[in-house]
Amino acid sequence: MAINPALVKVSFGDLPLPDGIAVAKTVPGQLVFTWNPAASANGNAKDQVMMLAYDVEHAKAYFTTVGQFRKDGGDVLYTDPTPGRAYHIYCAFTAADRSRQSQSVYLGAITM
């Protein structure tokens, strides 16, 4: 039996995700998430990003559930900078008033 990380949902809801969500490794241990900061029809500029980097091999998760605002267009998540560590990356948003959340999006695997 195996779990496909690309099919895992870490958040579920009807809050719309911003367009253009992406992640990049800039320096070891630092993941930069970016998205289009334009407000969507059912979103709010003060919705906040939720970011997760999960290391399956070492059963270690690095995350934040109250990151930067949608209007900011980006945030940084810090992980273990040890070379060779592989992380599965997820992103979602929570409403400014905490009444709802978005579906999570899988952004792929990144190796430090």
Structural summary, described in words:
The chain is an all-beta fold and 112 residues long. The protein has one domain: Immunoglobulin-like (Sandwich). It has no helices and 7 strands. It has strands at 22-27, 30-34, 48-55, 60-64, 74-78, 86-94, 105-111. The strands form 2 sheets. Strands 4-3-6-7 form a 4-stranded antiparallel β-sheet, with no helix packed on it. A 3-stranded antiparallel β-sheet has the order 1-2-5, with no helix packed on it. A hairpin with a 4-residue loop joins strand 3 (48-55) and strand 4. The protein is globular, with a radius of gyration of 14 Å.
Features:
Immunoglobulin-like, three-stranded antiparallel β-sheet, 0% helix, mainly beta, 112 residues, 7 strands
Summarize the structure.
The protein has 112 residues and is an all-beta fold. The chain has no helices and seven strands.
What oligomeric state do these chains adopt?
Answer: single chain
Main sheet summary: 4 strands, antiparallel
Distance between the termini: 27 Å
How large is the count of helical segments? 0
Major beta sheet, strand line-up: 4-3-6-7
- As for the CATH topology, it is Immunoglobulin-like
Strand-residue proportion: 35-45%
Helix vs. strand class: mainly beta
In total, the number of strands is: 7
Helix content: under 10%
Shape: globular
Order of helices and strands: EEEEEEE
The CATH homologous superfamily name equals Immunoglobulins
Radius of gyration (CA) equals 14 Å
Which CATH top level class fits? Mainly Beta
User: What is the count of distinct domains?
Assistant: 1
Q: Which residue ranges are poorly predicted, with pLDDT under 50 across at least 5 consecutive positions?
A: none
- In round numbers, the mean pLDDT is 95
CATH architect. name: Sandwich
